[in-house]
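Q: Give me the 3D complex with S-adenosylmethionine.
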Amino acid sequence: MKVNLGCGNVRKPGYVGVDIFPGPEVDIVADGRFMPFFKSDSVDVVYASHVAEHVVDLYPLMKEVHRILKPGGRLIALVPYGLRSLYDPNHYHAFNETTFRFFTRNNGSGHEANRSLQRFPLFDEESTRLDSLTQFIRFIPKLQFAIESRPKIAWLVSRAQSTALFRVLPKGRWPQLVVILRKPEANT
Ligand SMILES: C[S@@+](CC[C@H](N)C(=O)[O-])C[C@H]1O[C@@H](n2cnc3c(N)ncnc32)[C@H](O)[C@@H]1O
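A: Here is the predicted complex, encoded as structure tokens.
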């Protein structure tokens, strides 16, 4: 089974849509922090696109996602990148490449887990990436600032991204992180 958590108006074929608000594409109305209708270790994939930034307390959310995933199951989380995300009053968190590592164990995959947060070593990090355009611009802070600080240019960039050329960037959202975490197998 696959779950599209915080699905909103998006129907993802093959996924059960869960959202805290009802809607035509929502199969189950529920808070992602409490999903008792899913058995433990029963879900293959939890896909959560632009949801985590809306949840005040991430720990219960991550624990519940961890509970329902099968060992080896994956959380695919898409979140806005960087502090700019906090300009939106509906957003409670800003994310960078390290944020989700607070929920991973130090598994030798190239990063040092933050020891003070190893109370929540729930997952293994499979991958963390910025979408391609962001990845390029991020390393040129002046260019990033030049774009972000000029609403017209920022608007043009977002328009360009909604063209076929940038279809790889979901919904023209930018910049965003795509994080894949895996629930460890029981005996690892
Ligand atoms: C920005 S929308 C993203 C919708 C969709 N995933 C997409 O990519 O377009 C955020 C969604 O998360 C839902 N949401 C917010 N907090 C939630 C929670 N605690 N549990 C489940 N859904 C939640 C909202 O109702 C909303 O539909």
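A quick observation: The helical segments are 58-68, 132-138, 141-148, 151-161.
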